[in-house]
Amino acid sequence: MSSEESVRIRGLTKRFRSSWRTHSEVLAGLDLDVPRGTIVGLLGVNGSGKTTLLKTLVGLLKADAGEVRVLGDDPWKMQAATKRRVGYVPQEVRVAPWMSVAEVVRYTAAFYGSQWDQAWAEELLDRFRLERRDRAGTLSGGQTQKLGLVLALGHRPELLLLDEPVAALDPVARRELLATLVQLADETAGSDHSQTVLFSTHITADLERVATHVALLKHGRVEIFEEMDQLKESVQRVRITSAGPLPDVVPEGGLLHMERDVRTLSATLSDGGVARWQAWAAAAGAECAVELLNLEELFIELHGGACDPPGREHDDAVSAALTERGLP
After folding, report:
1. Which of 28, 118, 186, 273 could lock onto 220 through a cystine, CB 3.0 to 4.6 A?
2. What domains are there in the chain, each with its CATH number?
């Protein structure tokens, strides 16, 4: 594993028992390299394997096949020294409900010793507007998520893994979290401990605001891993209008999606072949406008029609699989 990679995955496969005689393959030979110092957004429809991937990276699930390295270590047998370099926030944060916010923070800090940055944790508590004396059991879902973020960030981890970290947050808290991620990345840029962030989200506008790279999961594999700017430049849409009927035959290659009638046509292209379509439109005496897509539009186009939500069978299989580590 290169020192320039925080995460290296080759051929990762993970299956869950979906019935007494069949298994559901959630990750199917997945490959991924996450460069050190990047903020990587993990995109995919429900059931595409985002949560399974993140749980495998922190050692909550064991891979059925393939090689996984997190900061050079095997996550299933991760050494304590490596664990202290990783921060993780699951979709549902669970803390002792009888403890106050301050007590939860002190309890977590004890596991990290001198590595824990209490001043930074206090700053985060203020930033997320969490009252130290409030009982954890009385916090709202969004407040509990904020507390989970404080616990994951307090030791200033080199690798931060976040599973839908903003789903339960209000818009102000979401902006605070995103600003924090950028701040940490800027503070550590170029150092031997550059912070890397891998986070899944359905809120593409947030991802577009902070991510340096995008990883798109589809059918259990990473279909696309690109720098944000390169990805946005690689997919474009042309809108063609004509006073008369357009030719039936259109340019070949790179066509993701097309809608047309007799005199208008909209085509989404993935190969940068806009010039061919402009020439085609000119030859037909039509006008051609080129548009850049935002990340949400890109996500929909790159997934095509395969955006149906999964059934409960997959969720039940994931829950059952947690028994591998005796987890609830």
Report:
1. 28
2. 5-230+310-325 (3.40.50.300), 236-292 (no CATH)
